[in-house]
Amino acid sequence: MKSKADFILESNQYCRDRGMDATKIPSPQQILSQADLIKKREEYCEILSVVNFFGEKILHFLKGTPLLLSVSDNKGFILHMMGDETIKKTIHDLGIKPGVQFTESSMGTNVVNLSLKHHQAPIQIIGDDHFHTYLHESACYGVAFHNADDRELLGSLIIMTAKELQNPMMTTMLATTADSIERELMLRKQNRKLDMLNQIIMDNTRNGMILTNRDGVITAFNQYAELFTGMSRRDMVGRKVQQLDSMGDYIYEVIQKGSTFEDVQMSFGKKVTGDRLVCLFDAYPLYDEKKELLGAFGQFRNITEKVEAQERFNYLANHDDLTKLPNRRYYKDQLKSFIRHAQERSEKVAIVYLDLDRFKIVNDTLGHSSGDLLLTMVSLRLREILTPGEFVARMGGDEFMFVLPHLKHEEEALPRVRAILNTFRQPFNMNGYEFHLTASAGISIYPKDGQDVESLMVTADTAMYSAKERGLNIYAMYSPDMNTKSHEKIMLESSLRKALEHEEFQLFYQPQMDIRTGDLKGVEALIRWHHPTRGLIYPSAFIPLAEETGLIKQIDRWVLREACRQNKKWQDAGMPPFRVAVNLSSQEFLDDGFVKVVQDALEETQLDPRYLDLEITETMTLNVEHAIPMLDKLHRLGIQISMDDFGTGYSSLNYLKNFSIDRLKIDQSFVRDISLGTGDGNIVSIIIAMAHSMNLEVIAEGVEDQQQLQFLQAQHCDEVQGYYFSKPVSANEFEQSFAALIASRKTMN
């Protein structure tokens, strides 16, 4: 969970120290009378007009999102509210309305007071960051704005919305808006000063100015006109005004027709630096006292910063801040355009929904900052694979969408999708690790699979989930029968939630044998689900769904208790003691309270800790700062720890020696072909030698024939597990076959 900012903690403590009751709605110490409020608004008239202008833009860009925008003065008095009427009425009923003063001593932890107090940066207070509970369902954002000349604090701009609609982009948007407000106020102040001068001071103004005679010949050209146009005064004075790019034709029309122009926006590129200047251009005719034409006057006002601020605002509204790719909103707008063009030309458009496989493991193990870095690297590759006309956007999380336009046949999309998936063949190098990511893709085709944006996105999403169900790093084209499979997945999730309550899970056990003596060293507990209508379901069909829905921790804890209980039951029945191995999920391993869970399970079942073996995977140890102390705490309980699927993950050998583990478990993918003379045999030999050099035992899983066993014996592997000895069996079957298993001691020679 993200920790609260220091200023929020300090404010909440201040409220407690004052004896405030968090459950009571506070009352402000001061409320302006109607007359005082009107007077205060008159003082802030210009500021409120500017804030209202930019506030309307915020509400327009976030149309459809219920939010309330408010502005306060520098003392915390609310002067104006705009936005969602429902929110406005709700807080009005709570006593929050224009004229109310927000102070920490009267209103508790609030975004108005804190944004004024800490006015150098935006403030956000989400949910229970607020001291008073009546605000716990809200998300509030605030930023102070100042006088641009002397940084005098003028007031604050506040956004309030529902907690579930919180968005970190709000603070960036507020900061950009406050900057625009400050600059607009500064520009207005500058223009007022120019009006007070009541004369044109050509070389002392910050505006570019041009004068011509009645024939259109330039007679004056000030330094800012030089700056804006890139033309020198020496070259331009005496030349016809039509020779000026952009504004020349406007000024000439003034001379010919007596026209006037105001606020015509123009852009100029600096020849030396390549920077862009944006100006507002005015042009007027000049007359003498007899109303006869003397010439024309043109001026430029630099609005580059204002335009750039607006462009930044538009960019943030349409692009993902992390990857800089277009976002969902921009993607949908562009897809409409692609569909329109396809209709006009009788073409097809492919929509590709791409989702990274097992990306949650990276976030869970290394943290979101590393996950964000990896997403940025993925985005760069996806951008590089684009061909002219194609388009990609980040839809959120680890999901991306492509548009592949101008297709005559839908099959034309398949080579492009394969090329996209092939970009993941090369690992991603990050923080000393090589990450071998894969992705799943779903494809829908306009107009076959949908006539509009929403239906095409839904069908592509459905196809993507169908691809995931088939495996990793593959794609699927949408077909109507996938909707049935999606329904089946929903039904399976519903059944999974009831499976624990209805005792539908069962553990099967597979022996782990000493490779030298043939003695039983332990068993691995493997879960099975006896579904009431579908029969026996193997873990591969429901464990990913359990991880996706958050049910995995409940299942993990049931497996742990049941495996310990069964092992203790076997010992009490007179069987020789051996360990039971239990697989952990990354969610359980990353839970700081898991050590207590294991301790409670051992105490409840009275199983000696040395007969419990917890199996972790390499990917769980990516977050070394968490893995080392967690493994150390678990090991101190007296249990054993094995690293499962070794060789398939991302472990750093530099850290492996620091982990409190007892054995490495070689993944069956390496064992499968060791007798065929492939490179897997060399890998297995290296793993065994390395483990023994670190005083670790080695167990090889997936042993199915005599040749594999003999190879492992030659390499001095410690233990083996697989169908060569026994398939996973129920507890009852294990008890019945135990005597035969021990008596036979499958030959190791």
UniProtKB/TrEMBL annotation:
* Domain (PAC): residue spans on this chain: 262-315
Q: Which PROSITE patterns match?
A: EAL, GGDEF, PAC, PAS
Signal peptide (UniProt feature, chain positions) = none
The name on file for this protein is: EAL domain-containing protein
Q: What InterPro entries has UniProt attached to this entry? A: Biofilm_reg_signaling, EAL_dom, EAL_sf, GAF-like_dom_sf, GGDEF_dom, Nucleotide_cyclase, PAS, PAS-assoc_C
- All copies of the GGDEF domain together span 347-480
Q: Domain named PAS: which ranges?
A: 201-256
Ranges for domain EAL come to 489-742
Top-rank taxon: Bacteria
Q: Which NCBIfam families match?
A: GGDEF (TIGR00254), sensory_box (TIGR00229)
